[in-house]
Amino acid sequence: MAGTDKTVLVINPNSNADVTEGISQALDPLRLPGGPEIQCETLAEGPFGIESQADVESVTMPLRRLVAERTDADAFIIACYSDPGLHVCREATAKPVFGIQECAVLTAAARGDRFGVIAIKTVSIRRHLRYLRQMGAMDRLAGERAVDLSVAETGQGGKTYDRLAAIGGELRDLDGADTIILGCAGMARHRMALETELGVPVIDPTQAAAAMAVGTVLLAQGAKTGRDAITEPPALQKNVG
Question: Is 83 left (phi over 0), alpha (psi -120 to 50) or beta?
């Protein structure tokens, strides 16, 4: 398959480089031969973890500036579950910009009837619910429960994984969720193990957004080269008596 010079830029709005590295590793399956390059970048101006509305608001304009500056990118992903700056970033570029919460909810709705969300903090849930109401997705929400860990802690193993599995089990068994969304980009490295243990689809939001971004870039490339054009069938010959 021919290569491509297209790029999907994934921006981690917090300044924790370890979280960025975990996101990048989780996106390896979407680094396809012939597909766009997936670059992951840490927003240096961001807080170490985005855990409050103040944190969300603090990164909005730095994200907009970065998106406006990176004219080489063909699509952008805001890799924070609160989708900070999503709409102002869309104003800053004609390129597609994907928010990982929005993409995760759409993906979960395609994989099951009702989804549950694992939040990092109890205080995050109210913010997430406001967003779900804006999306018109509340009737698909089974419930949201918090692990009450920091963003940095969610990327670690051992006790962190056990906590994620316990909350995921409550969402499945007590709330009736048949799909689970990981409500923080820092949880990416636990997705496969959680899906195996819980026995239901587990959606990593950055993977969901990247799948949409890669598909969008490839389809745009195909449209420009004519590969996705519909070929008209040859006209049927009339029988001559």
Answer: left
Give the pLDDT band of residue 230 (cuts 50, 70, 90). very low
List of domains in the chain: 7-99+205-223 (3.40.50.12500), 101-203 (3.40.50.12500)
CA–CA dist 149, 172 (Å, integer): 20
pLDDT at residue 217, rounded to an integer: 96
CA angle 180, 186, 189 (to 5 degrees): 70
Cα dihedral sign, 43-46-48-54? negative
Confidence of residue 157 (pLDDT cuts 50, 70, 90): low
Instruction: Give which of 233, 224, 168, 156 is closest to 195, Cα–Cα.
Output: 168
pLDDT of residue 162: 92
* CB 111, CB 160: distance < 8 Å: no
Which tokens go with 44?
């240096």
pLDDT of residue 239: 47
pTM for the whole thing? 0.88
Q: Which two tokens stand for residue 93?
A: 């570029």
Q: Interior CA angle at 176 toward 172 and 177, to 5°?
A: 60
- Greatest Cα pair distance, the chain, in angstroms, is 82
